[in-house]
Amino acid sequence: MALAERINAFVKLGRFLSQFSKENPQPNSAIPLNDLFFEGMKHQLKLAQENNGWFTQENLRFAIGNWAEALQEEKLIRWTENYNLDAVSPKKVAIIMAGNIPLVGFHDFLSVLISGHDVLVKQSSNDKHLLPYLAKYLEYVEPSFKGKISFTDEKLTDFDAVIATGSNNTARYFEYYFKDKPNIIRKNRNSVAILTGNETKEQLEQLSDDIFTYFGLGCRSVSKLFVPKNYNFQDFFGGMYGKSDIMNSAKYANNYDYNKAVYLMSLFDILENGFMMIKEDTQYASPIATVFYEYYDDLSSLQEKLKADAENIQCIVADIHMENEVKFGQTQHPELHDYADGVNTLQFLVNLL
């Protein structure tokens, strides 16, 4: 199967997914095999929500919409054009996936298949419904994928390389267990935002997307703010106000109430607005419904600190002309070349011998 054929199959998958990025999806008769897969996909989305209360219909639509946008022919060609993927000698690559947000492991799945390798997937129990169904669609639109995609709930065996995502604790286990295989091991990371006090109202409203999308559960979700001394949080809270209906989620509201009670009983100083709390803290990973903040003296010292802490950070949202900064509102819209942890997955896969 040539690269062009693999790209074409994923373009068809993207068109199929595009139907489900809006409320009340309507079937498009021009999409290949839609009569066979459309109703089944609706059922898988229902199962995904029932299996994981954090996977609301809104979050599922958002994730699917992002992938429908990414799986366009010109984007896939641009992403792969600098690699000789037709010369790759196929290996079996195992992927151990996280389950914190819908289809969080899809980029690894796409990368392995687009590079010409076979994939062996071990899914998280929190996100187990969507990917096997999409894999089945791929096999129907491009029969050459049959035999190249497999899923397992058992211990991984008979593979040549591995991409594993987990917590810092599980990463230590992965590093030991997979030490004799080519590997990418991912640990906990969080995203941060640098505020100067000069942000526009629009930028702060966009920052609310970076904070609240997926309830803040993604590694690209902003969980920490860096603010100048004497920063007035009034404008920040104003930018967050549009997300107040997040309290309609019982799971989120329960976490908000619980964490607020813990902070108050512990006599921690917090600021809150009825649906989120901010707390001064040097850590990067904050609990649900909480964003940590830390004061900085000057931007140059802060940038040095963030470089030193790079292994803990996925994205830096800022408007200070910093290298690799992400624009406000864009953390949850990564491009295909925006690799998790900054590790070029495609290059890793091309280099497998």
From TrEMBL:
The keyword Transmembrane does not apply. Pfam families: LuxC. Signal peptide: none annotated. One of its GO terms (biological process) is bioluminescence. It comes from the Bacteria. GO terms for molecular function: acyl-CoA dehydrogenase activity; tripeptide aminopeptidase activity. Its EC number is 3.4.11.4. It is an enzyme of class 3 (hydrolase). Keywords: Aminopeptidase, Hydrolase, NADP, Protease. InterPro entries: Ald_DH/histidinol_DH, CoA_reduct_LuxC. This is Peptidase T. It comes from Kordia algicida OT-1. The lineage of its organism: Bacteria, Pseudomonadati, Bacteroidota, Flavobacteriia, Flavobacteriales.
